[in-house]
Amino acid sequence: MLFSDIFGQEHIKAHLTKSADHGRIPHAQLFVGPEGSGTLPMAIAYAQYILCGNTEGENVSGNAACNIKFKNCSHPDLHFAFPVTTSSKVKSKPVSSYYLEEWRQLLSAQPYGNLFDWYKLLGVDNKQGQIGVDEAHEIVKALTLKSYEGGYKVMLIWMAEKMNIACANKLLKLIEEPPNKTIFLLIAEDEEQIINTIRSRCQIVHFPPLAENDIRDALVERYDLEVPNATKIAHQASGNYNKACDLVHSDSEDIQFETWFIFWIRSAFKAKGNKAAIIDLITWSEDIAKTGRETQKQFLNFCLDFFRQALLLNYNATDLVFFEPKTDKFKLENFAPFVHGNNIMDISNELQDAIYHIERNGNSKIILTDLSIKLTRLLHKKER
Fold this sequence. Notes:
The protein has helices spanning 10-21, 39-51, 64-69, 100-109, 115-122, 133-144, 165-176, 196-199, 212-223, 227-237, 241-248, 253-270, 275-289, 293-314, 332-335, 344-359, 364-379, and strands spanning 28-32, 78-81, 153-157, 182-188, 203-206. It is an alpha/beta fold. The chain has a five-stranded parallel β-sheet, sandwiched between helices. The radius of gyration is 23 Å and the shape is globular.
């Protein structure tokens, strides 16, 4: 993957290439950034820059054969680890090496993709993947072997926050004192979920969300969109190129999430003193509970964003509002007055608690029903 294929983040590209050109390559780095900011493609381009001996800030002037191997991410000295789970293909002790074909498919189609896209590709969005101790054994085994081409070896761990404690402890010593010319590139969206002993051993590189102009230019270049349309989509994407691509294809899960959210909100408003609306909320909870856990978590995060957008609109921060609801007869400006300083923290806390409990395999139907009943009270709370 070429650095020129990565949108924006020019200051990070310059930092990585200059440090590599001067031989200052930390043995463990943690790339932290929100979804769609380009952490994964940047890590792959950086690995290519190092392994192929490229110079001058781009991946074209080094070892030509090495660069060709990177076109489908099949270089023998580039190793991957990512969250996996059992599936129809792997019945027990799943590790990343069993899913390399699907992984390369994701990198080819959606290098800016998220965990939800990955699980959907595997057909396991009703399960939650992790990077477990079996994966740690595979990592140790791979890195004890000599480099295939006699240079560096790179271990790229995507969504490193999904490492469980046993895996993290197993890798701790290896990350602190890796074999000669071995580099760890960890990628995460939430560094707080990575244990401190791992974080403290890594040099952290923070990625900001992509600028609207960078997303707009990328959409014009890749999808041949008209500038006004690309500008609108870039604004709605809020720094997330993966979301922008979904919006171009009208394939965003946000469209379905919006339908669920608005039915939920309308039912919660009517539920005060209305038994029929309470039944609607219970039915809604049962329907959402039938989806996969990753879908439920993704939806609840969407709800958090929706409430934040309503709050910003309520307090006239219109420049920061990017949501444009597509549902008939639902206007964000009419909903916004019901989200204010006296209830937003409680709403946010309840949603985050629901995500926490779903993540830990709580009963989704009970969690969502409880959340719905609490929401009916919070939405009717008056602003002081």
